[in-house]
Amino acid sequence: MLRVGINGYGTIGKRVADAVRAQPDMDVCGVAKVSPDYVAVGAVEAGYDLYAVDDERIDEFRAIDIDVAGTVDDLVEQSDVVIDATPSGVGAQNRPLYERHDTPAIFQGGEDATVAEVSFNARVNYDEAADADYVRVVSCNTTGLSRLVAPLEDAYGIEKVRATLIRRGGDPNQTGRGPINDTVPNPVSIPSHHGPDVQTIFPDLDIDTIGLKVPTTMMHVHAINVSLENPPEDDEHVRNLLGNEDRLVMIPDFAGLDGAGTLKDFAADAGRPRADIWENCIWEGSVTIQGNDLYCMQAIHQESDVVPENIDALRSLSGHLSGPESRSLTNETLGIGFSRLNGRVAKRLDTQPAD
Amino acid sequence: MLRVGINGYGTIGKRVADAVRAQPDMDVCGVAKVSPDYVAVGAVEAGYDLYAVDDERIDEFRAIDIDVAGTVDDLVEQSDVVIDATPSGVGAQNRPLYERHDTPAIFQGGEDATVAEVSFNARVNYDEAADADYVRVVSCNTTGLSRLVAPLEDAYGIEKVRATLIRRGGDPNQTGRGPINDTVPNPVSIPSHHGPDVQTIFPDLDIDTIGLKVPTTMMHVHAINVSLENPPEDDEHVRNLLGNEDRLVMIPDFAGLDGAGTLKDFAADAGRPRADIWENCIWEGSVTIQGNDLYCMQAIHQESDVVPENIDALRSLSGHLSGPESRSLTNETLGIGFSRLNGRVAKRLDTQPAD
Question: Is residue A341 within 8 Å of residue A249, measured between CB atoms?
């Protein structure tokens, strides 16, 4: 049983904690949190042992009647591995703490790639983390791009990727971040940092990215062009290729899933925790071949698509399952895949090939 | 076992179906739906028998491989009671169908009050529906206002209510509705229709309301003034009064629950289905007595606050439980109340009376 400590219990940390708890081969030994707010109340409701950053903070939690099991230092000491889900930049500051305890750690994509020996995507380079002590799961956008790039590279070869990332302004609980009524080039410099980040997963990939921010809290949306070396005959070939990937979901035209609002509503109807969408959502109707160029649009749930990747990173690092075994177990325990939706797509493609 | 048919499987219908299924004394005998879209896929995933409006629609469902159990007519025939959760105005058109089958029905607040014999709120007039065949559960906003008005009327007597309703533009899956960047008086005439609607529950209440719409899909927010006949000495008296109501939740200052975004995130963390918030969320820090005037602000989750009211309306109409018994059973089976949050409030008020 792998004992996992979660340092940082925010958007990502609370989801990874629940996902760890859903695994048969892992336990959550506690979660560390800075502020005594509603998320801390939620951690206690969920039954996690709560750790504070220092003794002063322990008192703040006790003032609102929340028991604290100790400090972050105690949590790291008890953990076989730590998931660092602290805010961007804080992870790097925490690394000496993990080194002091000789405890391996998994960082998030908000950290610079230099924080760890390996930047990680479960589909692409699972085995590379096996010998590492420090692994970085790449960001939500980089994860989303990597999952799409991998099968296209395998099947057709890629000449170049050009992607426009229309990014959500903040998470649902960050309504103060903005933008509130604007479309903001962010960063204004091109290529944005996302392209180089994808290259931490695919070192030889030619990719340029453009980033913007818009006033939504729901999902990122990517408008993607991939120039292929050996393009297939038609769009359908691509749809079937992508539809067979376990962390890509093809969104069929019939379903009325016309944006992030309906996608999140669908995930809520499916009974998913927090209406999370761990998969890339690729609009079937957008998948288009024009000569050598493939185009498509996909929605990426910024709060949750890295969650299964963190679980697989834990197993790669601890070394007790192979990549396919780990991904399969993660998918099964979390309930990844909207099988009925994909089933419908497959049927539709079978019966209406000329669509 | 009360056999309940759900006619209209949208925002309200799908939630009421799940709530009926959670009751020990009711069964869902099927749901009727117009469009073969993602919500229909969700109904099948949830295991409900699906009924179509007519034979032509049955074929549309079968084209996407969804089995249909029959038409709405068949569903009504099999039901002891029907929940009509069709779009506003359609319910009234459906009433002759229910009459033809001699099947009692519960309509939603989008219908004119004349659609039914009784307009219903579980806290206020549970017993009035006992002799009725047709009951109308009032709208989300009217439900939210009624729950707040009831204890204030009981404890202090009400001279007059003045409420400004800052309404969400649409539900999360209705992103096309707007407004997208505006605050729109809606309706521009004052008082808005909400005041008279509250009077269907409190016939003698003096109440004026103003309505507006803003670009959010998350919750309505009410800014409320109640002129009291016998005001209490201080704000704390009101907070304790309201905090003891089972479908009101006092939002403590410490929690960082600063708006609908954080409230929904908290509900998601609590593992609630669809992150629903069945209770009025009243910001503790806004509860203020100025002379005879009470002020406060509350958030109302438009998608779900009427769900427990529909369940209670079913029991009132069928007559096998008293109001307190039904409300208690509904609260327990759905998991109503953020007890830990309210516990914190109570403790805080006990220990810091001068706050």
Answer: yes
Tokens of residue A314, six digits: 């834990």
Angle between helices B38-45 and A260-269 (to 10 degrees): 10
Task: Tell me how crowded residue A96 is: count the other CB atoms within 10 A of its CB.
Answer: 9
> In angstroms, rounded to a whole number, what is the distance separating the alpha carbons of residues B115 and B92?
6
DSSP state of A129: G
Q: Computed from CA positions of residues A60, B297, A273, A90, in that sequence, does the dihedral angle turn out positive or negative?
A: negative
Chain B interface test: which of A9, A34, A41 (most B C-beta within 10 Å)? A41
Beta strands at A81-84 and A280-283: parallel, antiparallel or unpaired: unpaired
When the candidates are 3.40.50.450, 3.40.50.10140, 3.40.50.720, 3.10.20.90, the CATH number that belongs to B2-137+307-333 is 3.40.50.720
Nearest-angstrom CA–CA distance, A209 and A195: 5
Task: Using the CB atoms, write b or e for B17-40: b if 16+ within 10 Å.
Answer: bbbbeebebbebbbbbbbbbbbbb
Q: Is A29 a catalytic residue?
A: no
Of A37, A65, A259, the CB nearest to B256: A37
Q: Is A174 helix (H, G, I), strand (E, B) or coil?
A: coil
ipTM: 0.90
DSSP A306: T
* B1 contacts B25 by C-beta, under 8 angstroms: yes
Q: Do A254 and B36 touch (CB under 8 A)?
A: yes
Question: B98 by DSSP, 3-state: which?
Answer: helix
Write the single-letter amino acid at B354: A
Contacts of B269 in chain A (CB under 8 A): 14, 38-39, 42, 45-46, 274
Q: What's the CA gap between A280 and A148, in Å, rounded?
A: 8
Structure confidence by residue, pLDDT tens digits, A168-221: 999 999 999 999 999 999 999 999 999 999 999 999 999 999 999 999 999 999
Nearest Cβ partner of B344 from A64, A254, A259?
Answer: A64
Domain boundaries, chain B: 2-137+307-333, 140-305+338-351
- The residue type of B162 is R
Q: Write out the H or E segment, with its range, that includes residue A154.
A: helix A140-156
Q: Are B141 and B222 in contact (CB under 8 A)?
A: yes
Angle at A219 between CA A213 and CA A220, to 5 degrees: 45
Shortest CA gap A161–chain B (Å): 30
Q: Which amino acid is at B64?
A: I
Class of domain A2-138+306-333: alpha beta
Quick check: B175 and A65 CB within 8 A?
A: no
DSSP three-state, residue B274:
helix
355 residues of chain A, pLDDT tens digit each: 999 999 999 999 999 999 999 999 999 999 999 999 999 999 999 999 999 998 889 999 998 889 999 999 999 999 999 999 999 999 999 999 999 999 999 999 999 999 999 999 999 999 999 989 999 999 999 999 999 999 999 999 999 999 999 999 999 999 999 999 999 999 999 999 999 999 999 999 999 999 999 999 999 999 999 999 999 999 999 999 999 999 999 999 999 999 999 999 999 999 999 999 999 999 999 999 999 999 999 999 999 999 999 999 999 999 989 999 999 999 999 999 987 675 544 444 343 333 3
Calpha distance B7→B223 (Å, rounded) = 34
Distances from the Cα of B355 to the Cα of A50, B59, B236, B291, angstroms: 27, 64, 9, 19
Q: Are A144 and A300 in contact (CB under 8 A)?
A: yes
Please give the class, per CATH, of domain A140-305+338-351.
alpha beta
